[in-house]
Structure formats: structure tokens, C-alpha cells
Amino acid sequence: MDNSQASNYTQLIKEIEQLTKEAQRLRDQEIHNVINTIQQQISEYNITPSELGFHPEILSPASKKMLERKSYYRNADGQTWSGVGRQPKWLKIALDHGHKKEDFLVCNQSTNCFSSELNQSNKTDDGQL
Q1: Are 109 and 118 in contact (CB under 8 A)?
Q2: CB within 10 Å: which end of the chain, N or C, has fewer?
Q3: Domain ranges of the chain
Q4: What is the pLDDT of residues 47-62, one digit of tens each?
Q5: Contacts of 40 (CB under 8 A, 6+ apart)
Q6: CATH number for the domain running over 69-120
Q7: Residue 111: beta bridge partners?
Q8: How far apart are CA 113 and CA 92, in angstroms?
């Protein structure tokens, strides 16, 4: 290999390294966006790990605990949220319309049970919260 071939080779190696770094940066950015989208949809549709095909026998103890998580908020349509993670879309919309999270408590200290009348009163004429 003569001197000009060696410099071409060295230059190609540098280009490969730069392209590899750029590809990894773009991949990391895309993965971040994909994960955010997936997390939002899981929260919005209240998808459980078992619905995604994860079986409890292969889940970590922390994941098993998550499967047992109780719902603390529920709207009149029966959609629930445990209070952990991102707020679901239905709750965000209700909060934007002046409701309080406490309006959707499944059980609170004053009633100690779910009040369907409470959530029914939160519906508008078109049935939306």
C-alpha cells in the first residue's frame, strides 16, 4: 500500500467513525421519540404488561407489583388511572375544563367508596368530561 492509498484508507476510517457516531445519535433520538409515544399510548389506553404479552412469571418483583397497582381515579366511562406515571388524556382534558383530580377519586377519605354520581355530574351534555 503506497502513501496515497494509506491516506485514503485513513480518511475512510475517519468518515466511517463520524457516520457511525451520527447514526447512533439519530437512533438514540428516534428511540427517545418512539418510547415517549409508546408510553403515552400505554397510559392513555391503560394497557397492562400482560396485555402486551409480558407474563408475570418472567417479570421482576417490581413489575409484578405494578400489575397489582390499584386505580385511584376513574371517570364516568370507567377509564382509570393509578396516579403513577403520566396522566391519561381523559384526565388532562377534564382538568383543562376546570375539574379537580379529587373529582375522580375512586375512594377518598370523605366517602370511602367510589361515587358514580360524582363522575356523572362531571359529564357535559354530549357525554364528555
Answers
A1: no
A2: N
A3: 69-120
A4: 888 888 877 666 566 6
A5: 86
A6: 4.10.430.10
A7: none
A8: 23
